[in-house]
Structures are given as C-alpha cells and as structure tokens.
C-alpha cells in the first residue's frame, strides 16, 4: 500500500490494494468451502507456502518500477496471493485437532498464539531494522524463503489419519448457521469486526495525536503495550487452560465485557501512562476470548467439516473486516476519532451480550475423548 501510494499519490490506488485482496479472499473462501477437504491439510499448507513465495517474488519485482501496466499486474498478483492465503488459514485451523487431544485444545491454541504473538512483536522490531540495513530485493527474497520453509515444515507434521476424513458434499454455509455455537460466534465476530477496526495503525495514530496530544513515538509504545499484553494473555491461558475450559462460554462473555469497559476507559482518557496500562490489560482479555472461541469452533464443528466451514466463515468475515477498516476510517473523519472509540466499546459489550444470552454457548463444555466414546456407545 505504501509503495503504491508513493508511486501514484492516490489514496484510492492504495485503498484498492485492500479492495482487490478482500474480493479475492471472498471468492477463494467460497471455492475452498466446497473442495478443500478433498486434499490432506498438510498438503494444502505445503502448496500454499510455495505459491505464496512465488507471488511475493513477483510482487517484489513489480514494486521495483511501478507504471500503469505494472500496477495492473500488481493488483492481479495480489488477488492470486490472497486467493491462496484464504486456503491456508482454514487448513491451519483444522490441523490442531488432528494433532492434540480434545482436552488440550485450549492449551494447544494458547501455546500457538503465544509463539505467534512473540514472533509478531519481534518481527515489527527486527523488520524495522532490516528495512534500514538491508535493500528491498533481499527483504523480498527473505520473505519468500520464509514461506517456502513454512511449507516444507508442514510436510513433517504427523496427523491422526483416522480423524482426517473426507467431507460429504454439503454446503458449508448451512453448517455455519445450523450449529448454534458456530452461528453465535460468527455473529459476535461480525460486530467485533466493526469494533476491531479502531486498532488499525492509522486510526490509532489519529487517536494518539488528537486525544493524547502525542506523536508517533507514543503511538509505537501503545502498539508495543498491546502486543505485550497479548503475549501475557496467551501465557496465562496456556497456564490456566483447565480453569478456562470449566466455563469456556462464560469466559468468552466476560472477556467481551472487559474489552468493552477497557475500550470505553481508553476512549475517554488523555493520560499517556494510563492509556499504555489499558492497552496492556486489553491484551490478555482479547487473547483469552480469541483462544476460547477457536477451541469451541474446533470442538463444535464435525471433524470432516472443519476446513470447509472455516473457509465459508472466512469468505464472509475477512472481506467484512477489510471493509470495516475503510468505513470506520471514513466515519472517524465525520464524527471524530473519540466517538468511534466509544462506539467500539459499546460494540464489544453487545458482542458479550450475545455470548451470555446464548444458552448453547454459555453452557458449552469441551468433552474429553472418553466422554465422546461413551456417548457414541450409548447412541
């Protein structure tokens, strides 16, 4: 987006990057929801790694000299990159239940999130340094090699072949709405998609300037504070996994309430240190909710439908989240950045209300493998 904007001096041109990728994600998600289960999940991740590496190299080459022609090819390549990525995420989601037992879903997801957040935090810091010390072509090559390494490592994963059954031909969208907890979590994420848009870099920078009356240095500290909280949250979830599993649906609701209240406090505060503290506190709450939701979805969706259903959900949620980033940015110009943050806090509380009012979600319990076998035997 930055390179396109610098080359064209067009906000629309830069925003089109999000638009074409969102469109491609939607189309890819619809296709993936129908046929992804025809392949082994590790094969999907392996192939996606190689394809993403190739597309990154092409994108890097096109960015070296942007003209109207190369810009068109850049958008096309970005669409292909987004198309492949839309297959990767559902396959990755469905992989964990084939590796760990049901009683370890929360702990396994917590561990993965902890590693991911740590690498993201380190990536922001290291990426900034590399951007100064290393020339652009080498960064592109490094990124491509990282994707290839990811794809190769996927082939070393050993899954439970018995659980990786091929899906019968059902429309995945029906499963999204037929399973109560999946339907309610999807509705929650729809509202949260609007709320989460306030944490994009541009809007957060505007809040730092307008409300906190500070510069980009404080904006960087706020980002770091949230990442610190996110890492702490994933550590706590992994450590206290059994406690969260006891009332996992209630935990989702409580996390939503906490996010709502902390966001409202953040929106009405103009003290820098308090803003940093609130961001640190948001990290554990949001990570606990995210990990619990992922664990419930992995448990509630039948094993042979997991990749398809998640692809169908992504086909809606990913473009929706992208559109909300642009919509909220426009509303901030009209209503003011503080008003948008207050509205986001209320949306988090509304999302929590969905969790509490849903009996299926409120009372959800992840059953052990032994409990599942006993129920099947009784049936």
TrEMBL record:
CDD domains given in the database record: MFS_MefA_like
Keywords: Cell membrane, Membrane, Transmembrane, Transmembrane helix
Top-level lineage group: Bacteria
GO cellular component, one term: plasma membrane
Residue ranges of coiled coil: none
Compartments reported by the entry: Cell membrane
Membrane topology term: Multi-pass membrane protein
Gene3D superfamilies xref list: MFS general substrate transporter like domains (1.20.1250.20)
Protein's UniProt name: MFS transporter
Native species: Salsuginibacillus halophilus
